[in-house]
Amino acid sequence: IRDKHVTGVRRVLFRSEGAKPAREAYDEALAAYGPADPLTVSLALTLADSHTQLGRFDAAEPLYRDARARLRDPAARIDADTRIMQLLTRMDRRQEAEALGRDLLSRLTASRADPLQSARVYLDLAAVVAPEDGLAFARTALALRTEKLGEKHVDTARAQLAIATLLEALGRYAEAEPLRRTGAWALRGKLFAQHPETAAAWLRYGENLLLQGKLKEAAGALSTAEFSVRDSVGEKHPQYGRVLLFTGMTQLRQGDPQSIATIERGLTIIRAGLAPTHIDRVQAEPTWGILKLLSRDSATARSQFPPVVPAGRARPPPRAATVPA
């Protein structure tokens, strides 16, 4: 029976069949061995990873926390905390993620862990601190991965994409574009088109091109992103809403009459999947109000903006970060 559950784990990890087989394997192991068995704990983490990939953050967090509490091995706890940090980052709980990340780096340094583990945490920290400080973290991670893995490894591409994200946060879109392009193609080649990371890479590449006014190229990248996102996480995922949002904005600038409907559909998905204070929703909400202003529907526009301001103010302010030498 244990071999059956191990096979279930492998199927989830390598075939990306989603949360259903992970749930089945976890439930069977829980019934057979109890919650504290190492296999059950491992399956709980796998199930939590599946929920996270699908945007089911509320389902993932208690699984991560419970599994982490049952671990005794320091290396296993570091691995679990790294997953929890990534979840907190995706939930936009940046202060919690930063505190956990700094604690992880201290533990990794004290244990003289593999530099690649530190590289992973450096990248996660880069996403939750000020962009200027994040660049130093991300470049440290890129240097470690290039040294250990080579320039063509998928993890090296991930570090390049992290640097691109930070450059964009600083308004340096042209500088980020080649990193986006190289990273998107690398993930597509090393993983596959329907992988969630590949989908996210093409979405961000499309956003970059749109913000530079390269509409034809943006439309092509966003079309690839729509295919990847739809087949990896489904049409109800907030990321699919972002694809539609940016596709609609591209269509609007190209004079496509379908643009308003595309934007509205995307915003509906984002609202359904993200909390009002999540950064992606805070950034998306004003789009609809502005479009209503442009279409002379001032009443709808006025009703749109009040919820945005309190939500934005409810977000914790960014903390200054001290970058290690």
Account of the protein in words:
By secondary structure, the chain is mainly α. It has 16 helices and no strands. Mean pLDDT is 85; it is low at 8-17, 308-315 and 317-325.
Structure in a nutshell:
The protein is mostly helical.
Largest sheet: none
> Uncertain segments of ≥5 residues (pLDDT<50)?
8-17, 308-315, 317-325
Shape: globular
SS class: mainly alpha
| Fraction in helix | over 70%
SSE topology string: HHHHHHHHHHHHHHHH
* Rg over CA atoms: 21 Å
Mean pLDDT: 85
- With helices defined by DSSP (H or I, 4 residues minimum), what is the helix count? 16
Euclidean distance between termini CA atoms: 50 Å
Number of strands: 0
Proportion of strand residues: under 5%
Blueprint (SSEs and pairs):
Blueprint: H1 2-15, H2 19-33, H3 38-53, H4 57-70, H5 74-90, H6 94-111, H7 115-126, H8 131-149, H9 154-169, H10 173-190, H11 196-211, H12 215-233, H13 238-253, H14 259-273, H15 279-294, H16 298-314
Helix pairs in contact: 1-2, 1-3, 2-3, 3-4, 4-5, 5-6, 6-7, 7-8, 8-9, 9-10, 10-11, 11-12, 11-13, 12-13, 13-14, 14-15, 15-16
